[in-house]
Amino acid sequence: MKLQKFFAWIAVVIGAIYFIVPLIGTLEFSLRMRRDAYSFDAYASVFSDAHFLYAFGYSMLMAVLTIIVGMLLVVPTAYWVRLRLPQLRPIVEFITLMPLVIPAIVIVFGYLRLYNSSSILPLTGFEQTTNFLLVCSYIVLSLPYMYRSVDTAMRTIDVGTLTEAAESLGAKWTTIMFRCIFPNVMSGVLSGAFITLAIVMGEFTMASLLNRPAFGPYMQLVGANQAYQSSALAIIALAVTWLSMGFLQLVSRFSKLAPVKA
């Protein structure tokens, strides 16, 4: 037993070294922009760049829109499948898993062929419609994580009893959805939202091919020309991801302690 525990700790240490040492090296390199001294010059250069602020703000806006639209799409779907159409559950789960199998570049090339400027729906011909298409792309990418987070949270409540109780009091469908279902699955919604934020902030393929000024293409552009600033951007992107994962852990912990609303 002690030998197994020893080897388990060895595996943990090796894994930690494999992940942590490159991060430490990247952080150390990002602090060496000034000759023979550590400094935050690379980070100051990044934060003072108007293109960084615009790209970061743009990706944050796309992330918020993706989370809102994805939430409004996934929660009613998961609720309806669980309550009325349980026979469609395998089909819905298969559809939500497809973005994990189909590469993002295949999806975006399909969008470009279907919605180019010469098609019936020329979404790529205008800036706002291209932004809409990018949000739809991000929803597809985040669908496996958002749906599973919401579906897992919905398993912890008695959807049928809540619906029957609300209907007996004269509640309409919108009231049931936004005052009974949403508050009880908010932990799952927030979990999916934080994962979606991390996905959108680091996504490159779709934003680049749709020619959108997102954070991922900006990181690639800086990485091709400025070594220290690209390392600083990598640390900033990792910090955003870590914060998302930290909030996810907090939400999961508080959801276990919070009582289920009746």
Automatic annotation (TrEMBL):
User: What organism is the protein native to?
Assistant: Rhizobium hainanense
List the membrane topology term(s).
Multi-pass membrane protein
As for subcellular location, the record says: Cell inner membrane; Cell membrane
Gene3D superfamilies reported in the protein's UniProt record: MetI-like
What are the protein's UniProt keywords?
A: Cell inner membrane, Cell membrane, Membrane, Transmembrane, Transmembrane helix, Transport
| Family in the record | Belongs to the binding-protein-dependent transport system permease family.
Q: Which InterPro entries match?
A: MetI-like (IPR000515), MetI-like_sf (IPR035906)
What Pfam families has UniProt attached to this entry? BPD_transp_1
Protein's name according to its UniProt entry: Putative spermidine/putrescine transport system permease protein
A GO BP entry is: transmembrane transport
Per the database record, which ranges form the ABC transmembrane type-1 domain?
56-249
Listed transmembrane segments: 6-25, 60-79, 91-112, 132-147, 185-210, 230-251
Write down the PROSITE patterns for this protein, in alphabetical order: ABC_TM1
Its GO CC terms? Answer: plasma membrane
